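Q&A log
Question type: sequence-to-structure
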Amino acid sequence: MVLVRVVRLLGRLLALVLALAGIAAFSGFIAVQAAGGGLAQQALGRVWFQFDVASLNLTQAIVQRRILPALWDPVIVSVLGWPAWIALLMVAAVLFLLSTLVLILARQMR
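Response status: OK
Response body:
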């Protein structure tokens, strides 16, 4: 049960960090819009590429070679094409729900 709580806590912390990053990206988008700038939404993949290209390449290699090759192209590539703030908030919401689901399933298995 302790492991389940640790997994839940880590999942929620990561979800919180991603949600804060999504809110920051949305705030940047709103600031550019308020300043009269053009459409400033950047795709998550572009932001990740500009931030750390090596980790993006490593993630692709791990997913395609070790996890599930079909997961990268239709699923992850689609998410990387979304505006950064939407993608970050959606991934945070999914992580939060999964961390809650882990606890619920663990309680039912007892």
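Response note: The chain has a mean pLDDT of 91.
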